[in-house]
Amino acid sequence: MRNDPKKRAKGLLIGLIMLLLLGACSGSNGGSNQGDQASSKPPASDSGTGQESQTPTETEEGPPFELTIMANLHTPEVPSDKIKELLEQKTNTKLNIIWVPDGTYDEKLNASFATNSLPQATYLKNQASLIMFRDAIRNNQFWEIGPYLSEYDNLSNLMPEVLNNTSVDGKIYALYQERPLARQGIIYRKDWADALKLSAPETLEDLYEMLKAFTNGDPDQDGQSNTIGLTDRSDLIYGAFKTIASYHGTPNGWGLQDGRLAPEFDFPEYMDTLKYFRMLFKEGLINQEFPVTSKNDQQNLLITGKAGVYVGSMGDVQTLYNKLIEVDPSAELEVKNEIAGPDGYKGIWSIPGFGSVVLFPKSAVKDETELRRILTFYNDLMSPELANLIYWGVEDEHYKVEDGAVIVSEDAKLLEREVKPYQALQIGGISTINMYDAKHVLPVKAKAEELIKENNKQLINDPTAPLDSKTFGEQGIRLGDIIKDASYQFMLDRLDEEGFQKEVDRWYSEGGQKIVDEFNESYERSK
Amino acid sequence: MDRKEVMTMNQSVIRSAPLPDKRPKGELWRRIIKNRAIYCMILPGILFFLLFKYVPMGGLVIAFMDYQPYKGIGGSQWVGISHFQRLFSETMFYTILRNTLVLFSMNLLIYFPIPIILAVMLNEVRHSFVKRFVQTVVYIPHFMSWVIIVSIGFVLLSVDRGLINELLTMMGFAKIDFLMSTTWFRPMYIIQVIWREAGWGTIIYLAAMAAIDPQLYEAARMDGASRLRQIWHITLPSIRSVIVVLLILKIGDVLELGFEHIFLLLNSMNREVAEIFDTFVYNAGFKQGQFSYSSAVGFFKSFVGLVLIMIANQLAKKAGEEGIY
Questions:
Q1: CB pairs below 8 Å between A and B: how many?
Q2: Residues A228, A286 contacting (CB under 8 angstroms)
Q3: In this predicted structure, what is the pLDDT of residue A9?
Q4: A293 in Cβ contact with A234 (< 8 Å)
Q5: Is the pLDDT of residue A188 over 70?
């Protein structure tokens, strides 16, 4: 929080500079720009996969509606206004988008909420932020939108199951942004595996053998022992840990034990996973500083040919590959999922189907008319035309269409500057909007996308997603740190099983027991 | 003798502020009107303190409430001292207090003398180009953010490819995982503090030294005093009151160890020695929107700071110094 003003100032400065630059640009070629837009309009509207009923309710009468949105910025810089302006034209709005850097999003959200200055459409960072806001939602601080959804032809396509996962006390307050349920899997160096005559790992045992061979078998054949098996980072969830835990059969966050909900670390499978990692650590098969390694450094270990296995989102294979071949043109990557544990494959942990949600604070949205106007905007945003616009950009400029699927421009910087940030505004997604799918030129990326779909066959859900615990909302993060610290210390062999159990007991005594009770109560009620 | 000179100078500055007035009220107003230009000049300063330091203090009441933003201060429930009870009953409380105090003592004992030594050394440099050059070079780290300094530390100290560990292996020693070690956290912290702040800290001392009457040095030289003697008997006594004031201010900052710096160094492996009040407030309070609890912890922290500053000031006065109030 303390550095927030500085960051904001920096953001402002960048924003100002961008504005100036933009002004300069539009000043010099304003004419040709308009020409571009005029000529790109007709193809855009009929290439909108031809569903006329779903085109935006164009240009309502009257002056543009002013809408302020707070959204998460995943790129270092705020985007150019190009897409925003197109969006404003199509929806007859005047958008004021407050871009907040991802790293400080929750703080900014909290601060804005505390000072009653949340904008009309407030995106949350992730599911955890939604849990944090439950109390406020229950206290009538946000508009309930459930009853209105059926009136909008696009919004009504949102999936009831996912909406239910976002609900509070059974009422729907949020529009959600779709996320694949489980993207986790294994990415490994195929050329290394081939050199060592290893086949794709099928079990955790195979994986261990592969990591061992990658570390000790000189897979890059340079005669030096300078490689490791696994590259991991300081993230127990999106790093390797949780995925490997799933393969061991650990529940996702919470599991059922004799009909009652219990936290995952109470299950023996969690301990098995810890021991697996401790073994990797002790034998030097994993980067030795993984509890303090950033995602960037983690990926760099693979890119620079130091590590051979990456466990995480299989979709990352595209970026990894692009960078890897710059270093080693002969490198090959392969993806794999459904690794079997000691008792066979048990499934993979999943998220509740949404990444982020958008809420409508009552402090900013004064009446029902205003709310309906905002929902109209979001209904428009879910039309194929606008969904394509904010997700893919402008045709022939940011992407090309081939066989009804999108091939994105190779100019990654252009996309990052003009398109990528706007993806944060998306509501729904490919399964609820008839929008373009991506065409993957890289075969291994295409395979990764296949495997992501395949993951859906056997998912491990977090049973507490629709449940509620007040203590969890208040102290969950701090208590979670106890377990997180203990887990890392165990994996680095600085804590034994007994020591770990002591920390678990501490979790229980400092409030964990309350969380368990509250979740179970909520669980009983929901049955 | 020279010390007195500096002191009288200090005193004359202090005395020139209006004395507590025993004359009738009209007289005070008359003087205010007479010196209105001067009063106008301090007005922005006073406004600043009122607006940004005193008014927000009212917000401290939320430390005694179960504050809910949407209910506001008026609508939230009063809960007495329960947040303080929760703080004192945290199992982490003593760890945090210990860490804060240990890091503070290191700041005081290790960091604090360094700018003085550095300033004395710079003061002895006769070649003005060299002096300015060195001064500039030692200032520069102050303008880098902690993020950069910690990142540089990361690159140097990492086990996997860190320069220092590479050197250690080359010399035949075992690698040390500085970043995740509980023993190395404190040295690492204080070295980074010194590296960033020591140069900047010399400014005030150098300014104080510039005010020393050169005649004193001349006289000392006539008497055959060596450079060390001159430093010991002239330079250091002359800046003594400045040192004391800065020391008291530093003590007041006891629990202000720099959130950013420690937050960046903190990880699961060194939390035992690295968690301090600021990071605790962030992790336990702010991340989950626990405004009241965070305020209570902040309140406690400021209170300890205030008590320490008062003690230090009393001690300084007993030792015959001016103190800060």
A1: 83
A2: yes
A3: 55
A4: yes
A5: yes
ipTM for the predicted complex: 0.77
| pLDDT over 90 at A61, yes or no | no
Half-sphere exposure of B77 (CA within 13 A, CB side): 4
Using a CB-CB cut-off of 8 Å, the residues of chain B touching A227 are none
Rounded to a whole number of angstroms, the distance from the CA of A489 to the nearest CA of chain B is: 6
Q: What is the C-alpha separation between A340 and B228, in angstroms, rounded?
A: 75
Nearest to B286 among A1, A115, A287 (CB): A1
Partner-chain residue, chosen from A291, A506, A510, that has the shortest CB–CB distance to B269: A291
Chain A residue with minimum CA distance to B155 = A297
**Tens-place pLDDT, residues B130-162:** 988 998 898 899 999 999 999 999 889 988 778
- For residue range A429-484, what is the model confidence (pLDDT) as tens digits? 888 888 888 888 888 988 998 899 888 888 898 888 878 888 887 788 889 999 99
Cβ of B291 under 8 Å from any chain A Cβ? yes
- Which of A287, A475, A506 has its CB closest to that of B91? A506
CA angle B194, B199, B204 (to 5 degrees): 120
Do residues A500 and A274 touch, judged by C-beta distance below 8 A? yes
Q: Give A102's DSSP letter.
A: G
Q: Which of A234, A213, A207, A237 is nearest to A312 (CA)?
A: A237
Q: What is the pLDDT of residues A127-174, one digit of tens each?
A: 878 888 888 888 888 999 999 999 999 999 998 888 888 888 888 999
Q: Is B169 on the interface with A (CB under 8 A)?
A: no
Nearest beta carbon to residue B287 from set A106, A139, A506: A106
- A197 CB-near residues (< 8 Å, 6+ apart): none
> What pLDDT, on a 0 to 100 scale, did the predictor assign at position B62?
87
Of A137, A126, A68, A132, nearest to A354 by C-alpha is: A126
Answer yes or no: is pLDDT of B79 > 70: yes
Q: Are B284 and A478 an interchain contact pair (Cβ–Cβ within 8 Å)?
A: yes
Which one-letter amino acid corresponds to residue A236?
L
Contact state of A114 with B282 under an 8 Å Cβ cutoff: no
Mark yes or no for CB contact A116/B177 under 8 Å: no
CB within 8 Å: A291 and B268: yes
